[in-house]
Every structure is written in structure tokens, then in C-alpha cells.
Amino acid sequence: MSSCQVIDRSITFDGMVLTDIPLADLSVHRHGPVVTVRLARPDVLNAFRARTRAEFASVLRALRADEQARVVVLTGEGRAFSAGQDLRELGGLLREEDASDDRLREGIEELQELTRALLSLPQVTVAALNGVAVGLGAELALACDLRIAAHSATIGFPEARRAMFQTNGVMWLLPRIVGLARAGHLVLTGRLIEAAEAERIGLVHRACPDAELAPAVEALAADLAANAPGSLRLAKRLLRDTWGLDLTEVMARETDGMLACLRSRDLREGTLAFLEGRTPHYEGR
Description:
Keywords: Isomerase. The protein has helices at 50-64, 87-95, 101-120, 136-142, 170-178, 180-189, 195-200, 210-225, 229-241, 247-262, 265-276, and strands spanning 4-8, 12-13, 16-17, 26-31, 34-39, 71-76, 80-82, 124-129, 132-134, 146-150, 154-156, 192-194, 206-208. The protein is an alpha/beta fold. A seven-stranded mixed beta sheet has the order 1-4-5-6-8-10-13, sandwiched between helices. A four-stranded mixed beta sheet has the order 7-9-11-12. The chain has a two-stranded antiparallel sheet with strand order 2-3. Helix 1 (50-64) packs parallel to helix 3 (101-120). The chain is globular.
């Protein structure tokens, strides 16, 4: 893997603009085709405030246009992935006399847009749950394609315990990931579960000892980045869309996807690499 290039509280990335605002609540690191976005407010368990939301949205916009990135890893700094929304900021907003429904709705829609942007990224996304992931933290993890959790991680949707409600597509994503019965249990009880149980019910794809999380994520990201980018984009998009399609529609999309691959330079490279007994070097073309 190539040397790490770090963009910490910066606005440039490999000589090009990464974000349209400076970063204070996030840090971004590139290892070749793998980009790691780290939530960086460890003193408040990486809770999201308005600033964090704006920075995250800016990074997602930049990544969407980044043709060199093939894998995006989302994780947290310190002992938490994210404790969700910063309730101190929310409490202050609710106490304001001008906290109209329109203003509150605008803030909620900003949250919803994070999931839309995360789901629409062309790269494969991996949530590396290094600690507590609740509320918005758990919701954003659901929007990632893959999830790996450290054994110390706890995950849950405690909104009902705080007289709140789920956002960020939880009511659509969670039942599709763990099934309706388990989703209902998690949402209605609001209880947190440990990484081992999350793995058992399919909420995360793997749970591992804390010390093994970083190398496990690095190995997974390297495996993903070695695959043909075009194939990954097609597969990711169809996997997301398949719930709203019937079998005929899915098979038609498969045909279109296969035709696109057959026309690609990467298919030729993959075939030659196999015949020559070497590792393919895909360009995404």
C-alpha cells in the first residue's frame, strides 16, 4: 500500500480542492485508492454538531467527484465511532424563541441529505465501528456498504428513550439489513447491543478484537480496491436498487451491466492478467 497522505483540517487533497470549507471536526487520510474519513471530536464522543454536518457533507461532495478513490472508510477518533447528534446543541436550539418548524425541518433535512449523499457515493463505503455508535452514528453506519465492529463497540437506536425519532433512512435500511422483527426490537426498545450480537444478527459483517480492527479494515479495503472499479460501481448500485425491482428488471440491469463491462478496458486487463498469472491493474475504464 502506498504511503499515507494526510489532510488534517485542510482544504486541499493531492493538489486538488477536497472541501469547500476548512475541516475542524473531521480529518481525511488517503492511502492510495483508499480514503479514510475520521470523525474527530473525541471529547464529545464524535457527536455531530451543525459544523460537523457541514464538513461531512462537503467531504462527501468532494469524494463523489474523486475518480482516484475506490474505497471510503468512515470511522471515529478515540473511544467512539459517534454518539449521534450533539444534544447540547439541539437543546440550545429548542430553547430559542425563533425555533420555528421551518427552521427545525431544515436542520432535519440536512441530516437526511448526509445519508442520501453517502448512499450515492460511487466508491465502496466501509464503516469501521471503533466504539459506541448510536443515533446518527448508527444511522450513518447503516448507509455504508459494509460494517466492521470492534468488540468494544456498542450499537443502537435509542431515540425512543429520548423522546426523539429515527432519521437518515433507518426505517428503510434497518429492516432490509436485519429483518423486520429484529429492526422492530432495536427501534422500539431503544436498547444498545454489543458487537458480537450485531454480527450474529447481520447488523455488522464482522466483529473482531479491538487491536485487530485497524488491520482488518485495512485488509478489507485493500481487497476491495484491487477489484475493477466499474464492476464495483455497477454491483453497488444494483444491490441498493434491487428492493424496488422485480426479477425481470434486475436481470435486465444485469444484462446492461455485463455489456458495460464487456466494452471496458478493464475487462481486457483482467483477462490478460489471469492468462499471464499476474495481478491486474485496473483503471476504471
